[in-house]
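Subject: 1-pyrroline-5-carboxylate dehydrogenase structure
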Amino acid sequence: MVTPYKHEPFTDYTVDENRKALEAELKKAEKNLGKDYPLIIGGERITTDEKIISYNPAKKDQVVGYVSKANKELAEKAMQVADETFQWWRKTKPEMRADILFRAAAIVRRRKHEFTAHLVLEGGKPWKEADADTAEAIDFMEYYGRQMLKLKDGVEINSREIENNRYNYIPLGVTVVISPWNFLFAIMAGTTLAPLVTGNTVLLKPASTTPVISYKLMEVLEEAGMPAGVVNFIPGSGAEVGDYLVDHPRTRLISFTGSREVGTRIFERAGIVHEGQKWLKRTIIEMGGKDTIVVDKGSDLELAAESITYSAFGFSGQKCSACSRVIAHEDVYDDLLARVVELTKEINVSDPTNHDTYMGPVIDEKAYNKILDYAETGKKEGKLMVGGTGDNSKGWFVNPTVFADLEHDSTIMQEEIFGPVVGFSKAKDFDQAIEFANNTDYGLTGAVFTNNRANLEKAREDFHVGNLYFNRGCTAAIVGYHPFGGFNMSGTDSKAGGPDYLVHHMQGKTTSEML
Ligand SMILES: NC(=O)c1ccc[n+]([C@@H]2O[C@H](COP(=O)([O-])OP(=O)(O)OC[C@H]3O[C@@H](n4cnc5c(N)ncnc54)[C@H](O)[C@@H]3O)[C@@H](O)[C@H]2O)c1
Ligand SMILES: N[C@@H](CCC=O)C(=O)O
């Protein structure tokens, strides 16, 4: 019997012992930088000449690791291994597969500070954000393990008197997992372990900016008893390895998390039936957001301002859930804006290895330039209240930026910037605020601050996002508590960390025996 699921508690770094533990692991992690990491195909370590170099975004010349890069030939080798392994892995007991996840969770929990330290260096995450990423990875292991135990015998259906009917879920086949860099541990682990525990085999292609953490997960899974060939680690170029595997006729399921641009491309390509392909590929595609916080008149403005500031600038706004738009009732607009600007000015932007860093760098040069280009657009479209600048002398640091008086349909209020930039627009009443909030192509998260019950209920019905929060910020969904995924151009709403998620990785089979 397993204990009931509860989410992994966050670490309190004001406690001396915790702070010292992470400091010690950071020192160790820094000594281990710059190592070589091979591919893993069928358990075999393969080193290639071509490398993906993972850099610390806070110290742009510091190499986190050199990771061997797969090409099409190695991707094909991995596909064959995954396809062969699937033939027996699909018949393994769900309990055994769940146990691998439970053991993996225990291993990561015991070495929690080590993983968190790694995320600080490879992802540029401040301590609190890195700790939350590690905790979420553990949560996915614990939650999906338990969900599999619930689904293992299928779902009850009716039988007539002379028949015995059953409805079971069976795995799909080889799953291509393509993960993003921003939740480099949690999302990468969650999207890899869901297919594993449901009896599929996996080709894991992590984001090229953060591949080392995926190698570390592979080591954990091996220690937890995962047989060779079940998950194969094949970092490589999205365009080369990604396209090859998306197009491959033996690919059965593609689980992608990332940008709208790449997600829609994969969706289109996956719809093409290639020679030798015996199925229609299934896709789980979770993409970006343009997430709005609506603030009503008569609401708690201090709470709203603090929540907006954290939702916009936690991990430098590099969350698909980040608040990048605020729509405020005209009666409270000025006071709210003034308070958010005040709080933003207090934010400490520095190297995330420092305990007290609130905001670290953005992930790389491309992101740095893109965000500062958007800042220039913002200056034309609205009023720059704070920020709009960066410092790339040591790492990719962008200052938290607030724009005011934007039209709700301006570029800054419509396009995903994926950086520490938030825009403000005014609404004449609550109805108009919801109308403006819905006016984006996306539909991932949103939040409403109101003390008006009728308005809260209106938002519940009309604010069209996958994760809607009341009187709190719009980031920080917890596995098992806030199933996560969005509408419209935010993706397929597969709801990671929710009760339906594993079902997307399986197909329902009905058997009916005449008695
Ligand atoms: N909805 C969610 O749950 C969620 C969660 C995290 C991040 N995101 C989104 O992810 C984006 C940021 O992540 P990113 O910059 O890593 O996204 P990205 O789309 O650039 O990359 C995601 C992954 O796709 C791969 N890729 C690139 N080109 C490819 C191709 N042609 N074929 C196959 N794979 C390819 C990349 O190598 C990477 O592994 C943001 O838009 C963010 O909102 C969404
Ligand atoms: N699940 C995370 C966001 C994941 C995307 O980046 C949150 O709720 O903040």
